[in-house]
Structures are given as structure tokens and as C-alpha cells.
Amino acid sequence: MEMSFRWYGEDDPVTLENIRQIPTMKGIVTAIYDVPVGEVWSRERIQELKAQVENAGLKISVIESVPVHEDIKLGRPTRDRLIDNYIQTIKNLAAEGIDTICYNFMPVFDWTRTDLAYEYPDGSNALIFDEEVSKKMDPVNGELSLPGWDSSYTKDEMKAIMDAYAEVDEEKLWEHLEYFIKRIIPEAEAVGVKMAIHPDDPPYSIFGLPRIITGLDSVERFVKLYDSKSNGITLCVGSYASDPKNDVLAISRRAFELDRVNFVHARNIKLEEGKSFKESAHPSEYGSIDMYEVVKMCHEFNFQGAIRPDHGRMIWGETGRPGYGLYDRALGATYLSGLYEAVQKNNRK
Ligand SMILES: [Mn+2]
Fold first, then answer.
1. 240 given a catalytic annotation
2. Mean pLDDT in the chain?
């Protein structure tokens, strides 16, 4: 288990120097953010990013994410050229020594919350998802602009893309995912890259859009699309646990048994009424996830990949990118490493 931390590049208020001072920190999870989705990441740009991280005394553990163009998810004819580009990016990353790539297959919206700065009684702020509020959100006609919503879409473009997905139900989306997987995985395998699909967050349909990487059945179905360790998952326990129907520990155990866990996101959430939830501090006592059991499984299955604290709260007056402040994620990292040390030593006697 290798402790890692997400870094958003030079514009991130959290610096590499901050990150390297976090006890037990080994690696960086990052991406190139200014290459348009669908274009190839050049060797030069990857080298630049790598040098930046290495000059700070760290290394790149995982690329998160190489985004998948909507035309691939929609199964449009342009997808073949876009998949060629995606494969070239995988090859370029591999040539620079990067061996794990996280991505997701969520239509239009990435992770979605209804409030980015919910205030807990202790004064800390967290991201939350309120089911009732989410039902009132309408990406086409509504005035609300929310996180994870791609602000590069104009209103007309948003309507066009939402209309395009009206033709794509869950089965169609699975077909498009299968097409993508069958093309990229043999290439990733050939260059020693492990792909890690992130679950949909939250793991159910929102705004009428199909969502398919949602629970145990999805994991079972996904791994069968292509039988290879390179065709793996990001075990984001916070995302899987956000559907009260999911048993996140059962999903974790199954994914480890299948040997398809290529990356772990450890975040805790507190389930509330219905499908509402609040992100919480990492320790088990604050959320619905038994984080000790998650870390114990990483040890039991001798997980060699990267783990990172996922979103954190904003504490101690910190301002910055919601979910991605320094302090609470640093506490999360040391907590997770502490659990791991205890499990490891307990198993040694
Ligand atoms: Mn995650």
C-alpha cells in the first residue's frame, strides 16, 4: 500500500512542498489539465509534469484522470479516432514510467453534490448530497451551477448533450464501455499499464442520465468485459458507500478477490435519510464506512498499489478547492497509515 495525495498542478493552492511534509506520503496523483479532452498527451508535457513532481522529491503514483470524450460514451462514429488518441496517451504515459491510470465513464457530469460547504457543528465544512435538493436541480433549464458541472458547456450545448443521451440507456452505455475497453486494455496490458475505472459518484442515475459503475453487480460485469489485471477498478469506498443499497465491504472484498483493485480512494461518508449523505472526516466513528476493515483488506490481499485520502473537509480556516484542502486530507493520510501500521504489526507476531 503506497500512500498518495492528489495534486491539481501549479494552480493548486496546496503545493508539492506542503504534500511532501505529510508523514508517510510517498506519491502524487495528478494529471495534465489543459490538454482538451480527446487529444493526445505528448511525451514532452508528461516529462514536464514528471520533472515538476520529482524535483519536489516525490513521484507520480497514478494519473487521475485521463478523461474519456463524450463521443466515446455516446458511441458516435468519431469515437475510433478518439480511442486511437486515448491509446497513444496510455503509451506515452507508459514510456515515462507511469503504470496506473484512473478514469471514469460517467456521462456529462463527474461527481455531483448539492452543497460544497455544509457547516458541521464544529465549524468544519464538507461536501454533501441532499436527495431532495438534487431532485430540484435541472442542468438544462435550471439556474444552478454546481460542482462537477462542466462550465465549458453553454446552455445550448448542455441541452444538445442531454438530448443525445436520451438515446443512450444503461445497456447502450455498457455496449459503448465494452467497445472502449476491448480496444484500450490489450494496448495498456502490452505496455504494463493498469487501468482503474472510478465508480459513478453518486452511484446511481442523476438527471435521467445512465450510470453503470454503481455496485457489486457492475464490478462483476465490468471485469468480465476483458479478463486482465490491466482492466481493473478504483476502489472508491466513499462513492460505492453513497448508495445505501451497497455493502461497501462486500464490494471491496470481491474486487480484491478478483485481483482487480488497481487504486484505492479512502473517504468516509455518513449516510442520511434516503439517498442523502454527508462527507465526513476519515475515521470510522464519523462515517458509515468501517475504514479499519478497508485498510485491513488492503493488507490481507497484499495490495501493492496506491491509496489516497479522498475528499477532506475544510478545517482550521483553510480556503481552496472544495474537498481538496491540505489539512483534513493530511489527517486522513496519517490516520490510514496508522491503521495500516497497526494491522501490519498485529499480523507479524
Ligand atoms: Mn473517489
1. no
2. 94
102 catalytic? Reply is: no
From 71, 99, 200, 310, active-site residue: 310
236 is catalytic: yes
Give every CB contact of residue 184 below 8 A, 6+ residues apart in sequence: 83, 86, 87, 90, 195
- Closest C-alpha to 198, from 64, 309, 107, 87: 64
Q: Which of 316, 197, 323, 320 is nearest to 268 (CA)?
A: 323
How many angstroms does the Cα of residue 315 sit away from the middle of ligand 1? 20
Taking only the tens place, the pLDDT of each residue in 279-292 is: 999 999 999 999 99
The secondary element (H helix, E strand) that includes residue 242 is none
The C-alpha angle with vertex 8 and arms to 80 and 139, in degrees rounded to 5, equals 60
Q: Which of 103, 324, 327, 340 is catalytic?
A: 324
Instruction: Examine the residue annotation and report whether 282 is marked as an active-site residue of this protein.
Output: no
Closest listed residue to residue 186, CA positions, set 79, 60, 303, 90? 90
